[in-house]
Amino acid sequence: MSDNKVVKIGIMSFAHMHAHAYASCLKKIPAVEFVGIADDDQARAEEMAELYGVKAFATYEEMLASDIDAVIVASENANHRRHVVMAAQSEKHALCEKPLASTKQDAEAIVEVCKRSGVKLMTAFPCRFHPAFKRLKESVLEGRLGKLLAMKGTNQGQCPGGWFLDKNLSGGGAVIDHTVHLVDLMRVLTKAEPARIYAEIDNRMFGGDYDDTGIISIDFTNNVFATIDSSWSRPKSYPFWGNVNLEVIGTQGVAKMEMFAQKIDVFSDRTGKHTYEYWGDDINQAMIESFVDSIAHDKPVEVTGEDGVKALEVAVVAYESASRREVIDLYA
Amino acid sequence: MQRVAIVGAGRIGVVHAEAYAQMSNVELVAVCDIKAAAAEEFAAKYSAKAFTTMKALLSGVEFDVIDICTPTHTHIDYIKQAAAAGKQICCEKPLTRTTGQAMEAVRICEEAGVTLFPAQVLRWFPEFKKMRELILDGAIGKPVVVRTSRGCAYPSRVDNWFADVKNSGGVALDMIIHDYDWLRWCFGKVRRVYARGLYESNFPLTDYALVTLRFESGLIAHVEGNWARPSGFLTTVEVAGTEGLLSYSSAETAPLTIELKAKDEQSISVAVPESPVSRSPYYLELKHFIDCLEEGRRPDVTAEDGLEAVRIGEAAIRSITTDRPVALA
Which of residues 93-132 of B touch A (CB under 8 A)? Predict the structure, then answer.
């Protein structure tokens, strides 16, 4: 493919709110033609197509039969498998929202089908693209912190509501929603795999049949230990949606990353609220440019489907650990 | 009037002596330290008598209260000797090195009819008192998930006895026992403990632990103990509830920071944040203990509280070393 090739992309489903961010990102890339939107909810497809000035397809099949090169799948977790598999069978590359699926079996099926179909599959882990994380990664991999010993991560957020609270569609609750980002970053920093998982998980924040609170402990194969707080523990009155924070402990020093610390504090009498207005790099933009670049230049994707499987596995096993109240050894 | 003898002329001993010096109903009569020079210097400063053994202290001077400020592993012996002599006892945290010793200490003091006051000073830190008040007042609804962090550079003090986990228990006992006690005070009984840490490792000037506590109420708490920082002390607390969130960071609440220009090109300038309060938490803690003795009241922190905090620390260490969650109830 030449450098000038335009990559044609469609979005499958606006069920996940990140679809809006992705649509805006696509519009900003000159080498991309954002072709259109298909959705299980036809009215939503038409509404969003009008909002972004693109075509509303009547069905996924119609969009996948067009000359698009790739899709972004932003459906409910449990529908990822159906949508990515459809796309792969139509020989379209796919960027799939995280978590890659709602079960490990589905996630593995997604990876397998994309491999057999010869299409690229990227898991949407935008945090890898934040300049602060890239600097942290360089520092850790150069050995500036010495030998890596431990990590402490949080991805605490406000409760997203909607289908995220429906276990049949989400696969769980806060833990499956929020654990995967940090697992992915930790795998990059340790260059190792999660080996043992222990989790305390509960639903006492909202009392629903979904989990809203979780502390997950992970021992990695290189003996680095870590915890991840994946709770929906930011109240409605919180100034921001949440955080992605990561502290790293090494023999020669410690590092602390607050991914969304680049903010302005706004105290507004107009809204009666205090808000954080983030001004740092747009990590979704960087992620989507990377996906487009891998298609335009036929390069490997920066975040793979396997990365998505590995991160999801921790969340799934965390649920099992919490219900058994036992440490679960992934290599036992 | 309470006549007090301090055992251990180290850092915390001096802090306690300074607090007693401000109390009109306390006379600091003696200090005992196995190092004669340290005892003599301390005694001279506070016009007290110096001793190098408990035996000499107990036979050499009349006093009512003993304040044990020695390394953790020595606490139980001093508690036993002091209880046998009928002294009222204040003991620096952790109450003892092991749960078994703490149970013995509780029993012995009960039998001897003496007060055993564990110096869990965090309960007199105004920020920690305020957070507890807010939680109990329902400011954030029902508390659900809590995070605490306590960190500083690796302790390197006299003899550096902290470095030997056999003596100190390391960061998972010595440091974050403050948080175990505060969490119990706020949220009640702990049911289960899971922890990861460097207890069995031997990296120079480095200890670190991540402890997850599950309470009888269902509340989940995550406690970080950090002796891996290059410099500076930092505590943070966050309590998330059904109707809100409270958060505290020592780094963001210092009302005063003084930063001086470097004296020359070789030296570096350092900003020193300060959070002064008119009454030190150590003073308030010991004042409460002394007032309770004077008035024949039971202190707000009991020997059982000291024991339970040690029990959580020991469970954390056991979890670190066995890779298993440890049930307490």
Answer: none
Chain-chain contact of A234 with B240 (C-beta, under 8 angstroms):
yes
Distances (CA, A) of A140 to A261, B208, B210, B227: 20, 18, 20, 19
Mean pLDDT, rounded, for B281-300: 97
Give the pair of three-digit tokens for residue A59: 């069905």
Picking from B205, B206, B245 by the largest number of A CB atoms within 10 A of its own CB, the best residue to mutate is: B206
First to last CA, chain B: 41
d(CA B225, CA B208): 6
Which listed CATH number (3.40.50.880, 3.40.50.410, 3.40.50.720, 3.30.470.20) goes with B2-120? Answer: 3.40.50.720
Q: Which CATH superfamily is domain B123-255+308-327 in?
A: Dihydrodipicolinate Reductase; domain 2 (3.30.360.10)
Quick one: average pLDDT of B299-327?
98
Which of A198, A206, A250 has the CB atom closest to B194's CB atom? A198
Q: Is the pLDDT of residue A1 over 80?
A: no
User: Could you tell me the domains of chain A?
Assistant: 7-126 (3.40.50.720), 128-283+313-329 (3.30.360.10)
Mean per-residue pLDDT of chain B: 95
Q: Which residue of B has its CA nearest to A250?
A: B228
Rg (chain A; Cα; Å) = 20
Candidates A147, A148, A149, A220: best to mutate against B (most CBs of B within 10 A) is A149
Instruction: Dump the DSSP string for B1-65.
Output: -EEEEEE--SHHHHHHHHHHHT-TTEEEEEEE-SSHHHHHHHHHHTT-EEESSHHHHHHH---SE
ipTM, interface predicted TM-score of the complex: 0.90
